[in-house]
Specification:
single chain; alpha/beta; Rossmann fold; 5-stranded parallel beta sheet; 15% strand; Bact_response_regulator; Sig_transdc_resp-reg_receiver; CheY-like_superfamily
Length: 141
């Protein structure tokens, strides 16, 4: 999810090429709505976003029992202070902008695969590379 349409498209195309279903939104508030409707396997967040910033979105997701264990990645040009705040909130991965598309794919697939191992025997984990795992992202500034 990104307030920048071009970045949303870049993320979408690169992850769809890996077989992931991608759902996007343009800001933090919309991100929360989408997450509760779609139930993605991974969420990417930008730090600077309209209406609700990425760190606040991450904090809300961690506070909600339905999304507490949802893998979160910050994709942003963020400062060391913002990275520390993300770690404090419980963000699982960070990817600095500008990023290489291959690195984005590596980070997202790593989080999807990690969640699949976490779900384990329950059988409700996402599919791995080439599968149909869901990913929701919010990236931007």
């Amino acid at each position: 999810m990104d307030d920048n349409k071009v970045i949303r498209q870049l993320i979408r195309v690169n992850l769809e090429l890996e077989g992931l279903e991608v759902v996007t939104a343009a800001d933090g508030a919309e991100c929360l709505d989408v997450i509760h409707q779609v139930r993605p396997d991974v969420v990417t967040l930008d730090v600077v976003m309209p209406r609700l910033d990425g760190l606040s979105t991450a904090a809300q997701l961690r506070a909600d029992p339905r999304t507490r264990d949802l893998p979160l990645a910050i994709v942003s040009a963020c400062s060391e202070r913002e990275v520390e705040a993300g770690v404090d909130v419980g963000v699982d991965a960070f990817l600095a902008k500008p990023f290489e598309p291959a690195e984005l794919v590596r980070v997202v697939l790593g989080l999807v695969e990690g969640r699949g191992r976490q779900a384990g025997a329950a059988g409700d984990g996402p599919s791995g590379p080439g599968g149909t795992g869901r990913w929701a992202g919010r990236s931007g500034g």
